[in-house]
Specification:
The protein is mostly helical and about 240 residues long. It has a domain at about 90-195. The chain contains five helices and two strands, in the order H-H-E-E-H-H-H. It has a two-stranded antiparallel ribbon with strand order 1-2. The longest helix is centred in the C-terminal third of the chain and has 65 residues, at about 135-200. The two termini are about 20 Å apart.
C-alpha cells in the first residue's frame, strides 16, 4: 500500500473499514518484503572499541576513526604535552647532575695543576743547583708532561660544560612547543564549545518527537511496512 492509498483510507468513512481491511490484508499477503540488511557488526578489540568489521590498518582510510581515547584529538594532545613536559623535566635533572659533576671535577683537576706547578718550580730549582743529578731533571720532565695532560683535561671539562649549557638552551624550545600545542588545544576546545552552543536546542533529544517516515510531497516510492499497516489498523479500531 502506497502513502497515497493510506491517506485516502484515513480520509475515508469508517463504514468502508471492513472493505479496506480486507484489501490491506490481501495486499499484505501478496506483498514481498525485502529483508533488511543487517546493521554493520561491531567488534571489540584490545586496541579499538566499537570498531566496524573490516577496519584494519590497510583500510583505515575508508573508515572514520572510532571515538576512542587513542583517537580523540584533544585527548592525544593533552597526553603529548604532559609526557613531553615530564620527559623534559627528567632530562633537565640529568643534565644538571652532569654539570655539577663536571664543575666538581674541574675543581679537583685545578688542585692537581697547582700541585704539579709547585713540583715543577721545585725540580727546576733543584736541577739548576744540582745539574749532575739526573733524577731531578727526570722528575721535572714528568711533572711538566703531567701538567700538560691536566691542562688538556680541564680544557675538555670546560668545553663539555659549555656544550651542556647549549643543550639546556636548546631544550628551552621544548617549552615553547608545549605552549604552542596548548594554544591549539584551547582554540579547539573553544570551537567545540561554540559549535555545541550553536546547535543547542531547548528540548532534550529523548523528549523529541520521532521523525516522520513519509511526508506529503515526497517523491520516493517507499511502501508502508507491516508495522505501519498494523499501527494504522489499530488506530482505526479505537
Amino acid at each position: 500500500m502506497t502513502q497515497e492509498e493510506l491517506d485516502a483510507l484515513m480520509n475515508g468513512d469508517l463504514d468502508d473499514l471492513d472493505t479496506a481491511t480486507e484489501e490491506v490484508a490481501e495486499e499484505a499477503d501478496d506483498f514481498e518484503f525485502e529483508e533488511e540488511e543487517p546493521e554493520t557488526e561491531v567488534k571489540k578489540s584490545s586496541k579499538y572499541e566499537n570498531t566496524p568489521v573490516g577496519y584494519s590498518e590497510e583500510t583505515a582510510h575508508q573508515w572514520p576513526l572510532p571515538a576512542t581515547d587513542e583517537n580523540k584529538m584533544v585527548h592525544q594532545l593533552d597526553d603529548v604535552t604532559k609526557e613531553s613536559e615530564e620527559k623534559a623535566s627528567q632530562i633537565f635533572d640529568i643534565i644538571e647532575v652532569i654539570s655539577t659533576d663536571l664543575m666538581d671535577k674541574e675543581s679537583n683537576v685545578q688542585n692537581v695543576i697547582d700541585v704539579l706547578q709547585s713540583n715543577i718550580d721545585l725540580f727546576t730549582t733543584l736541577s739548576e743547583k744540582f745539574p749532575d743529578v739526573n733524577a731531578f731533571a727526570e722528575q721535572l720532565a714528568k711533572n711538566e708532561e703531567a701538567l700538560n695532560d691536566a691542562n688538556d683535561t680541564i680544557e675538555m671539562i670546560q668545553t663539555s660544560g659549555d656544550a651542556i649549557m647549549n643543550v639546556m638552551d636548546i631544550m628551552q624550545y621544548q617549552d615553547i612547543h608545549r605552549q604552542k600545542i596548548e594554544r591549539v588545544i584551547n582554540v579547539m576546545r573553544a570551537l567545540s564549545k561554540y559549535m555545541n552552543t550553536l546547535f543547542e536546542g531547548r528540548i532534550d533529544d529523548d523528549k523529541r518527537v520521532s521523525s516522520a517516515t513519509h511526508i506529503a510531497g515526497d517523491t520516493h516510492n517507499d511502501l508502508a511496512s507491516t508495522d505501519d499497516i498494523e499501527a494504522l489498523l489499530a488506530q482505526f479500531g479505537k
